[in-house]
Design brief:
mainly alpha, Growth Hormone, Chain: A, 18 helices, 0% strand, globular, Sugar_transporter_CS
Amino acid sequence: MTRNELAGTATLGLRANAAQFALLVAVNALVGGVVGQQQTVLPLLAADDFGLTGYTVIFTYIAAFGITKAASNYAAGILADRLGRKPVLLIGWLFAVPVPVMLILAPDWGWVVAANVLLGINQGLTWSTTVVMKIDLVGPDKRGLAMGLNEAAGYGAVAITSLLAGHLAATYGLRPAPFLLGAAYVALGLTLSALLVKETRGHAALEQHHRTPRLPSLRSGTTHSSRDIFALSTWREPALASASQAGLVNNLNFGLAWGLFPLLFATADLSLGQISLLFALYPGVWGVGQLATGALSDRYGRKRLITAGMGLQSAALAVIALAGTFPGWAVGTILLGAGTAMVYPTLLAAIGDVAEPAWRGRAVGIYRLWRDLGYAFGAVIGGIMADVAGLHAAVWAAAALSAAAALVVALRMYETHPTAR
């Protein structure tokens, strides 16, 4: 079938595509769960099973995950535009198959790092593709709501699985029980994607046919190179570039939290259950909050939520740096989750507002490239700062970067939602 023929069979809208959209939400929840299986457990596994003490060394697995996920996001965007969405989704799931087994059997830390390389490829290919497919299905009117539902499912699953994995680790030990969850998620995700998920490029072609381009210089998006799209998304186009830098800092915070928070909370002699709960609060509030914030951005616009969300993240990190008890850290992680919920689906919706359907996959992939490099930056900056100046100094550094990101959005980004200007 040609793309014109595919467009002829497509209908845009959330209601018209409710069944397929709901299936993709479920698939993305499984994608998030594969990450959640390890987030509470691996920092503790590094210290208890492998005797690692340097923060920079411990955070190597987060850096490996972030770099490979970022590169895979970029590849996913190009491949999704050229080959279709579903093939990329299936390839991504195949990369996840060995991950739980490698984590269970790992004789040394190198196996953990290698498993996170594969996990990064899996996350980049599968999550990017589900994002693009949902944007394809819903069309322009409910884009924020669609991204809120997508990200809520993914990060809600991260939170729930982190909590479950921590409970399993406390009950049955750090290995193998927590990672059996991930094995089940991979099997189910691959099966659903292969048998039930349908291609959505026809929906993108239909939107392209009826859409007036936002950027006059790219009226025929299919004729422009990936280099052009990279330049637009990185520095040339104010909204796209502002979204990319805000996304990078947002995930810098997540990468730092992933590796550092369990160790920081352990300094107060909290139990593994308390540590798991504190860590789960962050993605939990983040996940649930996106059910509201995505839809709010459709009504009130993208820029306000992004600016306020990055500012709230900065304040939340300051609370975490100042606190030293369970209640204080709980407040900080809840605020951090709320700030992230304001930002995460809204940034993706802003990319969808500006990018043409013909190069949407590449624009989303480039944005997610920069955003997920934040994992690596968070791991490196957090590890070095923690080794040199202590855990609290690393948190303060992230708070300062979040405040700077909010200022950049406030000064450079324009409102991208056409009805909210």
